[in-house]
Design goal:
single chain; 91 residues; alpha+beta; two-stranded antiparallel ribbon; 32% strand
Length: 91
């Protein structure tokens, strides 16, 4: 069996000196020691599909779990925003 693990990276169209300088500035920010007076926030955004059931689920009973049909209808997309406080370099 082949290993099908995929790693996702930001591959810039042109890795020029300006891009590298900005990336180093970001990385240096995360390397700074934690300072409660100047908090650093990390933010990430993830697109998520919004799905609608096409058939009503069957409620769970003592004999079986809740049953949900595998078919669905697309109902657009949304964004999941995640913001957390960075705590400086981890040793």
């Amino acid at each position: 069996m082949t290993n099908r693990k995929i790693e996702y990276w930001v591959i810039p169209p042109k890795a020029d000196a300006e891009f590298v300088a900005h990336m180093e500035e970001v990385l240096e920010t995360y390397e700074k020691p934690y300072d409660a007076n100047v908090p650093v926030l990390c933010m990430d955004e993830q697109p998520v599909p919004l799905l609608k059931e096409t058939r009503s689920p069957i409620a769970a009973t003592a004999k079986h779990a809740k049953r949900v049909d595998y078919e669905y209808e697309r109902a657009g997309t949304g964004r999941h925003l995640h913001v957390r406080r960075a705590f400086g370099r981890l040793a």
